[in-house]
Give the backbone structure.
Amino acid sequence: MRTLKFIVAPALILGLLIGLAALRAADEAPKYTIKEVMKMAHQGGSPLYKRVSSGKGSKEDKKKLVDLYTALAADMPTKGDAESWKDKTSALLDAAKAIEDGKEGATKDLQKAADCKACHTVHKGK
Ligand code: HEC
């Protein structure tokens, strides 16, 4: 029985620590700011989203885009209402995830969701 105690107690403590860490992670600010997501996913000569939405993205590209859009969806811009932000960012995130999962037609969904102007008109600025 003594040895069992030595196994169970650390296991319980470990479980508690993992649980606490998960709680704290959920509380933290998104991993990337909106500006960082724009820079890393949308800007540049061959932007990440474009590679992925044209079907030319590598495995790492797809993973990175899901990561960035996860942060985007968890954030909230200073302009526009939450409902609209949720719609637009979940469309991006869902499409990126579907591409990562290899779903057919998902690249079209991403092309449609990554509508710079439609989102900027409503959410960019003050
Ligand atoms: C889902 C909404 C959404 C979509 C889609 C979107 N953007 Fe943005 N973008 C924003 C918001 C909100 C800001 C303002 C961020 C801020 O000022 O904090 C922004 C800012 C920017 C900025 C300025 C970043 C800076 O450092 O100030 C650039 C550049 C940009 N977007 C490029 C793009 C391009 C290119 C596309 C299309 C491929 C695009 N965005 C699509 C929401 C979006």
The two ends are 64 Å apart (CA to CA). Residues 34-35, 38, 42-43, 49, 77, 88-89, 114-116, 119-120, 123-124 surround heme C (CB under 6 Å). The CA atoms of residues 41 and 47 lie 6 Å apart. The chain has a mean pLDDT of 90.
